[in-house]
Amino acid sequence: MPTDPELIPAPVTAVTCLEDRAQVERSLALDLRAGVQRLRLGPVSALAVDRTLHAELTADHEAGVLDARIVRAWTPRGPLPATDDSVLRLRVHALEEERRTLEQRTDRLRTRLDLLGRLAADLLREIGEGAGTGETDPTRWCRELDRVDDERDVRSEELRTAQARLTVLATELQETEHAIHLSEQGPAELLGHVELTVRSAAAGPARLRLTHLVPCALWRPAYRAVLDADTVTLETDAMVWQRTGEDWSDVALTLSTARSAAANEPPTLVEDRLTLTDRSPAERRTVEVEVREQEIADLGPAPVLGLPGVDDGGETRVLRSPAPVCVPADGRAHRVPLSSVAAPARSEYACAPELSPLVTQVVRFDNSSGHALLAGPVDLVRGSGFSGRGTLDFTAPGGPVELAFGSHDDYRVVRYAEESRDTATMTQRTTVTHTVRLHLSRFSAPGAQGDRTVVLRERMPVSEVSAVEVRLRKEGCSPAPDAVDDEGIVRWDIALPPGARRSVTLVYEVAASGKVSGL
Hints:
By secondary structure, the chain is an alpha+beta fold. It contains 3 helices and 28 strands.
């Protein structure tokens, strides 16, 4: 069986990027000979998953693939710089050589200083012994001590200079290596290629399609919302990372939320036994109640705690890049544009003083992009420029989108809450009166004109038992609320001219019979 010794280039032509891996597709034209032959295609990423390799051959005549496998070869990089190395790599090699020479010199200087210290100690001991026996030679002793001290000073200065140079070299070497990390990518030591055994009934052209999975690739959605008067331009992008070992150049990119690694297993059934018991006389006389916080849920997927990845609403979503993209294998985030749509928006200045004293500009519009908006971060831009970063929840096509474009510093909201309790002597009926006072001020710049409507929202409890009654005292509210919904959210639309101040009062009662406890 003939084997083609030349390596046939097989660049990546299409990529389907999943949450934590990617399916790579290679499509190329081949000129086959009649009979059975072996082809070598590549190079391919050494991280390719062998069991996912699939080869498909199409031709006008009868042809097929007999065997396809990935073969890897290890070519270690030598320690010495190569002739084709960049200037930065040659600089790193020169710095390492200089550092190695200085380290050896500092070792020799430390050894010499240690010997000089021992020599000085021996000389001082000789002086002490000679003075004890009456043999004195001050001239020689002074000359020897001065020579040792001079030598120690010279070597200490040389050691200090070498250590200072080592510190400078370490900093310069670190900066150079960081520059290499940012600008270059080292050659791969482990490379792979595909060995393909094909059979062709006749010589002629054929089309080959190779697919396989690779790890170290993922994507996440990202958005950019630009507010211009009554129009919002929403740009949908994808942040793509990949470190597969080969660049994706001019590839057709498809983004999917499929979780190929997740096991599809039905939930485990557990026994749920219900029992019916009679209440005791004490339980019949009293009703236990408690106040709890309940989040108001909208339409959409239920959040799943601890589930990583993209929130796709429980259904696999597929997005495609409108143009070929290039994603280098550097492990950094690369932004890929997917779609851009301009939609009419409804804007309001809203404030919930119980949660925050800030007045925020909230913009609402419909998702007219033609595809689902996956949950992800969104960069907010309005007339003054970049105003912050928010979060976009999962939104179905045509569904409502709500974005907060930041607070306005020319408003101030102050909230005061009071509570009073009254119990009737005869009926033992308890009434708790809640009074909430809100003071809203607008500090506008000189020359500002026109009223601006601020939507204030406060909440009152909602009773789920007939023994507890919640009533809004409209005669005590000033002004009267514009709306009260079924969830107990009270709303006022306050029109504020520049430099104005308004006060809002909310009064509601919670009444309970004498058999209610826990209120």
